[in-house]
Amino acid sequence: MGMKNLTLRNIAMACGGTLRFGGKPEGETASGKEVEGVVLDSRQVKEGCLFIATKGRQADGHAFIPQVLQKGAAGVVCEKLPKDWKEGGNFILVEDSFQALKDIAAFYREQLEIKVVGITGSVGKTSTKEFIACVLAKKCQVLKTEGNFNNEIGLPLTILKIRDCHEVAVVEMGISDFGEMRRLSRIAKPDICVLTNIGQCHLENLKSRQGILKAKTEIFDFMQKDGMVCLNGDDDMLATVTQVKGRKPLTFGRKETNGVYADRVENKGLFGSSVRIHVGELEFWADIPLPGEHMVYNALAAACVGNLFGIGEEGIRQGIASVEPVGGRSHIIRLTDRVVIDDCYNANPVSMCAALDLLGTAFTRKAAVLGDMFELGEGEKEMHGRVGAYAVEKGVDVLVCIGSLSKSMYEEAGKTAQRLGISEGNLYYFPEKKDFLGRWQEILQKGDTVLVKASHGMAFEEIVKRIAEH
Predict the structure, then answer these.
(1) pTM for the whole thing?
(2) Taking CA 16 as the corner, what is the angle to CA 178 and CA 180, rounded to the nearest 5 degrees?
């Protein structure tokens, strides 16, 4: 089935491109047939698809144009025609293929009647997306962001996956600098904006929490006229957002002053929690299958959005209970001789402390294997140090710090241990991951609960794999 109004002529108009057939200037008539899909990866091209040729770090999509045409691509968006190409194939010539991708997605979004839920915030976007998608799936056909495809490439590709069968799209919107969210908002044009919190990530560009708030709230710039905002009312920065385009935001949180709140939480440690949720006049218990107090906020965000869609108590409860962990994010792996908390997808000071809080719920010896956090800017050493101190204060039994930035984490952990009169015998520092992998079996014991966390670039999944294989 074709993508609504996404003909070659409309695509060229949307991205300001020049439409050519067989390498020749456009004739009097152009195909009015809608394309079947839009892809950047030549391996994903199927008959009737539009291929956008982009220059990546490892490969240039322009080199694969002949192959995609042989596969039956309806057309190619490109910055230059194939060398010595004489006939066959439909092309849309543009100055910037990545900009064309964004323009095409923004145009396509305008053709659709679907509701879009846009999620942003410093921490918890992906988990919140999963909770909201699971709750809405009790009533609607849902398309959601795959993994964390939340940037200026991932978001448009997600929007371009929407089809007639979908009733709502739940999309994650992530940024690291000013202006990015405005561009994402132009593409997604959300009907509902969800803001999870304002933390301390991407300070390198955004400088302060006030800067982060300003950058994240650019999501409102292209919100639909009758759009609604759902935000974490317990967050001190988000609490300052009292009106958006003349309407009061809906709030969720632990405080009873929020429109959606939880007044009782029964912690089940690594295996989740049970909470009593209030949504307007409704009051009910829900089981949250994922561990960590921060998951309560994700569930409350889902209850808030679910209520807007008219999903009742039972649907909200069942949706929350059906959430599964996203790979690399607080994924609990039960091995025969220990439990591993695999949280090596990403890291910043807020999520590090949240992961250490989670580790603190374990009933066995607690070990934390932590690595460098990237993109923190000027205060990176101090922030690493604070995480090390926090780990000791939380009662972590074994702390392993890996990486050049994590030396500050290790040093501050040692100072905190001295201040608290705790032995420093179980504090370890390794400049590189391989150094730890050579000694991990003498440091970690059977029966331990082990947290593994660092920024994605540290590739700590190798540590998780090594422990699991053993």
Answers:
(1) 0.77
(2) 10
